[in-house]
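Box 3.1 — From sequence to structure: ABC transporter ATP-binding protein
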Amino acid sequence: MSATDWRGRAVTNDDDDLPIDESISRRREARTLLVGLLRPYATAVALLTIVIVLENAARLSVPLLVQRGIDHGIPPIVDGGSARELILIVASLCGVVLVQATSRMFFLRRSGRIGQEVLLELRRRIFRHFQRLDVAFHDRYTSGRVVARSTNDVEAIQLMLQTGFDGLITAILTLLGTSVLLVVLDVKLGLMCLCVFPLLVVLVWWFRTQSAKTYKLVRESAALVIVQFVETMTGIKAVQAYRREPRNQQIFVDVADDYKTINERAFKLLAIFMPAVRLVGNIATGGVLLYGGYRVLHGEMTLGTLTAFLLYLRIFFEPMQEISQFFNTFQSAAAALEKIAGVLAEEPGIQDPERPVQLSKVNGDIKGDIAFRDVNFSYVPDRPVLPDLDLRIPAGQTVALVGTTGAGKTTIAKLIARFYDPTSGAVTLDGVDLRDLAQAQLRRHVVMVTQENFMFEGSVADNIRFGRPDATDAEVRAAAEAVGADRFIDALADGYDTDVAKRGGRLSAGQRQLIAFARAFLADPKVLILDEATSSLDIPSERMVQRALATVLTDRTAVVIAHRLSTVEVADRVLVLEHGRIVEDGPPGELILGDGRYAALHRAWVESLA
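Predicted structure (token representation):
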């Protein structure tokens, strides 16, 4: 059964059905990423490879010592002679085991440290890159997929680093070493055993090709489970408010069921591969016992040689059985690495120029003059949101954007904040194209306060100084007092040190908005954007926030977007938008007296209060 989302559409993965050339490119990016992560540890990896070789050499020498003990150590004792030879062999065996154990201990400690350092660097890169990517990326890339990339996929790579490297080198050394030693011990018997090798190659090739497809689907399905879980928990208020629990439960069960089905497919592959390898191994062992036993009885082979041969045969088939688990780990890690590489290959749509313009060097003090020059913008090609927009907002002016949903109000705000770049034309600050400014400089002078202001877990003071981490306690208090937030903050249990909890859960919507205003006031931008900052508040909270607006907007350019016309009263100028075009422009007092759209909206608002 194919899972569907809350709209009834099939749940798909962003990486489904990639074009062949893009899929090849993704694999190349994944290899480049892995090599880049391991390059600083090239010397250490080479040393670890030598340690693995030493460990496996010690391991492969054990059957030879057993052979010598049976053929040359025990007979003298049986004949009443000295046990010196056997004692030397046992001592050598103990030394070999000690070398093997020491090598293993060194490898595990050193490889574990390198693996954790590589994973730390990978997590740093992912987190840094997700923060660099623009709003357009985060608008289309769900939070669940972000979580999957930074946790689930990294864990798959961690498993590969912990067991994959060791498993691969050990498997190669074991197969090569035992193949040579089997032939060296007895050419006829060795060649007879190696006849099964082509069959094993076919089995491994079949398992590898099938598991590659299956484990890629496993990773994609796991990501979808995380996506559904995270998005449901993030929107739990809406889920409960609209009684969507049963539907969301069904969606999650369907996705989880798909994940279960794909995992069952992977286990079916293991259920075929592992018994097949064991069957081949047991047949080979039986053949060796029959033929080898015959030759021992006829004096063509010693018992020690046959024993060593059987031990090597067991060692030979061990990696063939373990290789299934290695492929499981490798395929999961490869799929995860491709997904991470794909995200890291995403370039932000908003880039800093090679030679950023310094506003202060161009115009002296920054004033905050905003202009749209023949701006065209569309989120989707051939579907313009803002067609041929020309607009100037003089420094220090407060402009209110009014219009129905989809009129283009928030789009204008996002262009001023440079969350997006215009499709054509230019948006300027003090006459300088925003694309010519470094984003860090622009963010210092343009701040956006949204309807849902995010509060980070921490104290009230920490959230106020979010835009200015170096602000003193006195400056934080002054900002809170300026917007009237100090009254409720002082009433909190720990005042400014009160933990607001996750997402500001200990604060009301109005209190969170006042903290957002204090945050903006402390940042002291030249341009302030209020995107429907009071639309979700109740009347008492709105009045509390309205009193803070006058203080926040003083001596700065402001763009106010609001559905409630009470917010527009603070504006010097009103722009009425319709389908991305300005249909009315003027002081609110003049527009109210007219018979245009704003006057009609104002009358409807007044009537709603009656």
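Summary of the box: Residues 221 and 259 are 5 Å apart (CA to CA).
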